Amino acid sequence: MTTIRAVSVAGVLVALAAVEVRPAVAEIYRPWCVTYFGNGRTSCAFESYEQCMETARGNGAYCHQNPWYLQYGSGQARGADQPRAEPAKAPAPQRVARKKPAPAPAPDPELRPVFR
């Protein structure tokens, strides 16, 4: 029974050692993509439009801006030498001109309060 436990523990340790643990990394989006006409495949691995066009020329492809890059930016971590982005400011509240309420009507002298 002890041998089975020892073999089981050793097997679990070997299995855990085989698992590769990687640190989390931010996705880096490149600004330019090439899309091929025939199969519609896209590769967004280009830093410049010129670099993208060199790949696209003669291959039946076209270059366009990466919509993910436009939406989320480069995805690179901000270093200590890079300034923080200024938070978006809320628009200033607009003043609404309000009319003065109409004066209350004068009480009718004929009406008397009823007390019971």
Radius of gyration over alpha carbons? 35 Å
Share in helix:
25-40%
Low-confidence stretches: 77-81
Mean pLDDT: 75
Question: Would you give an account of this structure?
Answer:
By secondary structure, this protein is an alpha+beta fold. It has a domain at 25-76. It has three helices and three strands. It has helices at 2-18, 49-56, 67-72; strands at 32-36, 42-46, 61-65. The chain has a three-stranded antiparallel beta sheet with strand order 2-1-3. 5% of the residues are buried.
Provide the fold topology:
Layout: H1 2-18, E1 32-36, E2 42-46, H2 49-56, E3 61-65, H3 67-72
Antiparallel strand pairs: 1-2, 1-3
List keywords for this structure.
116 residues; alpha+beta; three-stranded antiparallel beta sheet; 3 strands
Short account of what is shown:
This protein has three helices and three strands; from the N terminus they run αββαβα. The chain has helices at 2-18, 49-56, 67-72, and strands at 32-36, 42-46, 61-65. β1 (32-36) and β2 form a beta hairpin.
